[in-house]
Amino acid sequence: MKPLFQSFVLFVLLFSLNAQAYNSNGTLTVNGLARTFVFHSAKQMHLLPPLTCHCLL
Amino acid sequence: MMHGDGGSGSGIKSYCGLDAIADANNFIAVYPDGQMAGSSRTWNQYIDGTAGRPDNANLADDLPFLDALIEHFKTTYGINCQKVYAAGHSSGAFMAYYAAVAMSNKIAAIAPYAGSIWYDTNDPVSNDYYNANFDASVPVLHIHGTADNTVSPPATTWS
Fold first, then answer.
1. ipTM of the complex
2. Best residue in B12, B25, B33 for a mutation probing chain A (most A CBs within 10 Å)
3. What's the pTM value of the predicted model, to 2 decimals?
């Protein structure tokens, strides 16, 4: 039951994150210059690293 | 989505409406900042694959930045690299055209708004670079007001 409960909690957590838009920003150093950007994603779940997504499957 | 001269990534994010479209269509909208030129931001959109621009020799080449952005979102967020698109307003539109010419293997299509292609057919470096890298297979959605007196609409019949 415990692993099942943990999976349920994880699902609820990801589902709630998935329902929210996500805004963030970042900096990349390119040829010695600090280059900045902002970005927006409809679903934070899409921003999880691929490995994490694979683990969910 | 690349801003125009004097703008910023956060600025164009706030008014262009792309966030809502990203929400409805499940994609990530990225708004890079151009590089500082004096007190405002711009892009090195001159098509010659090098640093410097005819009107500003100090600008770095912006292609490596766009390339690094794509790689960043690929490695960090696992984006589909077959569906990377570039859009921009004014100077950002020029930069979108430049990306289409120079990065046609990474840019699926472009949507420039109130901009054009900036290269000089009389400049051997620019002309050679353009001819060597141009790939007509990149689809373009060009949006331009006919009364635009800042950037004239291309004198071309689009087909």
1. 0.93
2. B33
3. 0.84
